[in-house]
Design a protein that fits this description.
There is one protein chain. With about 625 residues, the protein is α+β, with helices and mostly antiparallel strands. Helix content is about 30%, strand content about 25%. It contains 15 helices and 23 strands. Strands 1, 2, 7, 8, 9 and 10 form a six-stranded antiparallel β-sheet that branches. A six-stranded antiparallel β-sheet has the order 11-22-21-15-18-17, with no helix packed on it. Strand 17 and strand 18 form a beta hairpin. The longest helix is centred in the N-terminal third of the chain and has 26 residues. It is elongated and about 110 Å long. It starts with about 20 loop residues before the first strand and ends in a 6-residue tail after the last strand.
Amino acid sequence: LNGKAMDAFTHTTPSLGMQEPVFVATSFAITAEKGDSVDWKEGIKLPAAVPLSGVVDMTAGVGRYPAVKAAAQSVMTTLEKELEGEYAYADTALDNLVPFIVLKKFNINNPDDVQLCSQALTTITATVVPILQAYTTSQGLQSIPPSRLWHQWIDIDRNIYVSYLWNILESDTEFTAAFQPPSGWANVKQHWANAIRQSLEETKETYQKCKNEPTPCTPWWLDTLAYLYWGLGTDYKIQWRNDNDADNKLFTLQYLLDNRKDLSMDAMARTMIALDAATGVPPQVTATYSSIISQLGDLLFQHTRVQGRTAYLAASTGSAYAASVSTNAISLWAFQKDASYSKQDALLEKLANWVGSGGDVQSSRAWYSFSTRAYAYMMFGLQVYDSAHGSSDPDLSIAIKSASNTLGSAHFTSPGQKPYSKELSWYQVGAETKEGPESATPLMFKVTGRGEASFVVGLNFIPLKVYKDPVYFGIYVQKTVSLINQTTGEVMQWDYNTTKLIPGQTVRVTLQVTTPDSLYGGVSVIDPLPGCLEAVDPNLKEDNTVSPYHYGRWSMWSMPWWRWSFPLQQVKKDEVTFYTNSLYAGTHTATYDAVVVTSGEFWLPPTKVSAVKQPEVMGLSNTHGVNVATRKQF
């Protein structure tokens, strides 16, 4: 240019917001029956957000068949893998009776789903039956091949369970047409029945030995009775060796009902199911059973805890973690037998969401106990729930409107149909951001036909306002910044109102995370850095080699104790992140060091902590200003 050599340089500098995007949501379900139309009005008020950052996410689905299908495939795959080894376990084989029983309850027409149901039937006749026959002895069904056992013993629950499932199969015409009983099969079933009776006799004998002791024994067999009458029916009569023994009454259905408040949660649920299935009883007895079902339902429901779009039954009263997946699934099943809960209570849809997601399957608590049995009860619970709400054979139309604008619509005709989802800007929704409740914009949800539609409406945005105090949506987060003495390494309190930081200083950032419920499926911590700080990466040693507990290759026992709650940490130029697969209820701490690098006035952004599976379960930390002295001032 003008005879001189020229050059140009282009650089794009990102402009980061004052804080991380957040996600808040509401979830609900609407059930329609017999072609009826049901309307639901949901008010939505949009908070102040960074311009163009606001998005409304809407998702709608019908039924839990995908979760049932996934559970069925997991059960069948587990058996296949066990057969590749020395032997399969009887419990795994038993649970492979369930996929065929449950899948048939759904009106499936997809070729892949029909093939899966057919495969489940073939698995029973070709694989499961030979296992059950080989593993059954005079002591009933054993857990592994009898030849590998030092001592054979009776597991009454296993023999009740196999009897229950087999009775269902024998009432299915498709199964009876395909099944050719092998030689001696009648003896196999008789061994199951004999084992149940023998175990009850042994339990009674044990009681008779201890009932006259100084400390009388409690009826420990109550849960077994609940399992017995759930599996074999309320009309089951125990064939005692001595019919005139006065202690026989301790094993009757009436004794179980008289002591129902002493049952475990699992046993309460089974008792509800058993009483609902009772047939051939007088009307007054039916009324009594209905009353007991309602009482037990109330006792179970007291354990309910809500967590975002899910709910679960706690392991015990006041407990901060869930009961097992099996217990929650059986309870979901039982609630459908209680008219006061079956369709009226919105929390049951959230319980179905929890069961369908596998509950705490991915948690460190569950690795030692989760089995194909949990998958089996998950299938039963979700199938009964869907059938009760018309979602096992849906024909449902949904429409979402804002004022006169139709925002979305869908029609569901198959239990395996993919959910409907749509993303809209706030301007498309037409909602206002003014203050006051009158600014809330109504969203109208209409469902027509047969089935239950589950909706999740979420707001994804960057808040325009930074709050000085913590923001709580299920997780409480606090953040403090302390000074580190460069000479002694001592951590000292810093008053940000009166004291300026100095370039070159090292500070320690402490994040305190409190959750009232145990969180599973991943918890993420994102702490944006103010412009004056540069985080020190603890995953690097002084010689720039990777430490033994760096991200992706860590051992909890090799790292400092303060890293146990959040073992995975990453340091980036603009933020520090932590991650854990599960977080127990209580207070947890994460820390990192940072160097003061820039002078000026800054704002400490809020730390965001959220559950990965349900990002609306989250919290933002407190914030405050940060003043850094200029180099001339010191």
